[in-house]
């Protein structure tokens, strides 16, 4: 693998998918068992802390590199990877950010947890698909 753009795209998309998987298998199940007041405090804290340069590099860099790769390579797998990476980004912006903002503004767990987790499954799936497709060798 001598293409730094491909390597970077695979790395960023894989790491982002890994963060999302960690929420599926550990973070949200752990929070689910907590009392409401603790859940709200911890989730709001996570939402504040995660907005940092390292996460933003993965969050924005993964779809950007996937789109650049699709434009350069123009093969169906890479284009599909870019679409999947963009889908994860759009889900976050359209669903998770508003839910997080509503929670920070005094929202309730009942209106937050179920839709957040449901849409997180879709976002995680899209991120995994983007990563997996970028790892499949192409003829380009």
Helix content class: over 70%
Measured on Cα atoms, how large is the radius of gyration?
16 Å
Mean pLDDT: 96
SSE run: HHHHH
How many domains? 1
Low-confidence stretches: none
**Kindly, what is the distance between the CA atoms of the first and last residues, rounded to a whole number of angstroms?**
12 Å
Describe the protein.
The protein is mainly α. It has one domain. 86% of the residues lie in helices and 0% in strands. It has helices spanning 4-32, 36-49, 53-73, 76-104, 109-135.
Keywords, please?
single chain, 140 residues, mainly alpha, 5 helices, elongated
Any chance you could write out the topology, listing elements then pairs?
Layout: H1 4-32, H2 36-49, H3 53-73, H4 76-104, H5 109-135
How would you summarize this macromolecular structure in one to three sentences?
The chain is mostly helical and 140 residues long.
């Amino acid at each position: 693998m001598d293409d730094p753009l491909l390597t970077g795209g695979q790395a960023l998309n894989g790491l982002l998918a890994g963060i999302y998987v960690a929420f599926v298998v550990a973070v949200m199940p752990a929070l689910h068992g907590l009392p409401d007041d603790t859940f709200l405090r911890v989730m709001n804290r996570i939402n504040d802390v995660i907005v940092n340069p390292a996460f933003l590099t993965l969050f924005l860099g993964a779809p950007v590199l996937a789109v650049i790769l699709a434009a350069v390579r123009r093969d169906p797998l890479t284009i599909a990877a870019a679409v999947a990476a963009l889908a994860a980004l759009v889900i976050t912006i359209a669903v998770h950010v508003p839910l997080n903002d509503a929670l920070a503004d005094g929202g309730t767990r009942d209106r937050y947890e179920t839709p957040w987790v449901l849409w997180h499954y879709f976002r995680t799936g899209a991120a995994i698909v983007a990563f997996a497709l970028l790892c499949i060798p192409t003829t380009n």
